Amino acid sequence: MLRRSILTGVASLLLSAVPLVATGEDMSKTPLHAAAGQNNVATIRKLLAEGVKIDARDGSGATALLVATHGNRIEAAKALIEAGADVNAKDNIEDSPYLYAGARGHLEILTMTLAHGADLKSTNRYGGTALIPASERGHVETVRTLIEAGVAVDHVNKLGWTALLEAIILGDGGKRHEQIVDLLVKAGADVNLADGDGVTPLQHARTRGFATIEGILTAAGAH
């Protein structure tokens, strides 16, 4: 059981990672993709006025908006979103502007995607909603924003983990993850929903010596 848990943890570290740049992003790049990556709003508007396809894909399947999101190019993303770019368009590894912005804590772009039709039920290649990697990575305001938007707090990914479990298992137990656990609990997260090995959030917190998180869970009825 211990060995299985360790292997699961190691695998999760590899699987939960969202690449900073999607593989092959430089392949078949259009001028619109290049302008988005450079945060060149004037060129973006010129190209769109000339009739270029706003959701054209590069070699990795990324749209110009996803390229802008990769680099947290806020002005470029704003111009594209306001012009009608699809915030849910996924690349070859199932990242979308909405999902990537959530995972990386690109809060301004995330907020724009939420205001323009982000699919809250959409999942990444590991079956996780935007809330799960945001919780793991300690993006407090992103987690708060996603909860307020209505993302399901108890969604379980392919690893058998919820946002609460990832915040504990892959978090560092510091202030940011304490705040995230508190936010998730207050949002109604099931504090007794165990992982695939039957280990509960409370057991994980105790094993790691996360006393404050343990207290938050216990106060919420965890056992």
From TrEMBL:
Superkingdom of the organism of origin: Bacteria
Assigned keywords, A-Z: ANK repeat, Repeat, Signal
Presence of the UniProt keyword Disulfide bond in the record: no
Matches recorded under SUPFAM superfamilies: Ankyrin repeat
ANK repeat residue numbers: 27-59, 60-92, 126-158, 159-196
Signal peptide interval: 1-22
InterPro entries (alphabetical): Ankyrin_rpt, Ankyrin_rpt-contain_sf, Dendritic_Spine_Reg/Scaffold
Protein name: Ankyrin repeat domain-containing protein
Highest classification ranks of the organism: Bacteria, Pseudomonadati, Pseudomonadota, Alphaproteobacteria, Hyphomicrobiales
